[in-house]
Amino acid sequence: MPRRGTTIVLACLGVFVAYLPVTSVSVSLTAIQSALSTTTSQLAWVSDAFVLPMAAFILTAGIFGDVHGRRKVFVTGLLLSAVGAATSLTAHSIGQLWAGQALSGLGAAALLPTTLALISHAVPDHRERGKFIGIWAMCLLGALAVGGVLAGSILGHVGWRWIFLVPLPVALVAVVISLRALPESRAPRAGRLDWPGQITAALAITALVYGVIEGGAGSFGDLQVVVALAVAVVSGVLFVVTERRSAHPMLDLALFRSPGFTATTLVAMIMFLGMIGFFFVLSLYFGMVQRLDTLGIAWRLLVITGAALVVSGIAGRVMHRLSPRFMITTGLLLVTASLLTLLGADAGTSFGALSWRLLLLGLGMGLVTTPMTATAVASVPHPLAGMAAAGNNAFRQVGGALGPAVLGALLTSRAVSSLPGHLADAGVHGALADRITAASRDAGLGAVGSMDLGPRAGQVWGAVGEAFLDGMRLCLIVSAGLTFLAAVLAFALVPPGTGRKRSVRVAGEPAARVPAVPDRREVETETPA
Fold first, then answer.
1. Which of 142, 396, 465, 483 is close enough to 268 for a disulfide, judged by CB 3.0 to 4.6 Å?
2. Is there a single domain that holds both residue 244 and residue 380?
3. Disordered: where is this region (predicted)?
4. What are phi and psi of 186, to 5 degrees?
């Protein structure tokens, strides 16, 4: 296979490994909660333990690849993903599961910017590159689709830990192929690592998500929450100051002079905040309210990811003919409409009644994913494409990390506050109602599952389901508001064209207009494998 073909295949395989744990864990949340007796906030950390390292270190990984070699970072990401999967596979406590997820998140942080940079290096023409970014996005969505179904099938026969076996052989095979066939490449004029920027960015992201999760689980007036949010603000300010003064910033703030990059970055962060957070809530709805097994949950989520996968592939092929503004705005409006239609869902809503709403959601997501990534990369000079891809992904993952934290907090707060009324309506009073209310307030609605409910179990679960639906509807309204805001921003800010290059000043260099298709010898260096 020619080198370009090998590079593209490995890049797609890498993003597949990076995203495979996302839906496999999402559909298994109910099983994990039951097996490890976790609270809702602890369960949110299962998802965020993966997303946080990805958001915090994705920029550093992209620059490390530009400086020291993308193949090195790519292989390291695959190995970290494999070690993380092995750690989670052997987990017997929530702490070890968090550790495994964190290692997998570090692997994903290395893989995401590197895979896009490898494609950018292999395909320097930004018009042709859009097609391959579409394939890359299809592999990302394919991992989301396959992960859930595989996890559901596995949990039908063995315990939840075995869902983490799947990424191991895929990652190890990709390592072997990479070491044998993937050429090494670096960015031109690569600087050195920006440690002050990395430290302040990691502190800001981690403190922000910690503060939101713990504030939602307890109170935003608690000392540790106030301190965490203060650290997030101070670290964020220091990051901006550091990047403005650095000769080799890990995120050149001049990128934000490009309307295309700025618009797609804002849209990505807001959309992922709403969507990843809602997937967390949706998985719990299927498990706690509709009482579905893991495979049943996976099939329903497959409607979303399957539709997104098909549409994303089509979007990659037609992207050079249609305005990215039109595609992104239309997709976000479809997502918003789908979320609003789900407000009518309840415990008895059938798969058929849900399927068209989930299909609409997937269509909208697929229409957004490819043009959003391609526009961010195409809207800056070619030498900055890797940094642009990493920056766009970093802000996207910040939104993804905040999503379960914000919506999980809203879900718990609304559901717990409405539970006493639903228990009374169901005829559950006295000491039993008080015990259920106290348990849900301390550890979330999932704590009810470990209680001895006696002959009133059916009434209690009906009340719990109604309380959960109250919380889910609030989350739907918030998610729909966020995606509508993203649609407005996309319409107002995304350039109407198909991604022309703009003049952007690189840190430490004079402003210069970089041609849309630069001489490859001037922008990349390649070392034989």
1. 396
2. no
3. 499-529
4. -135, 160
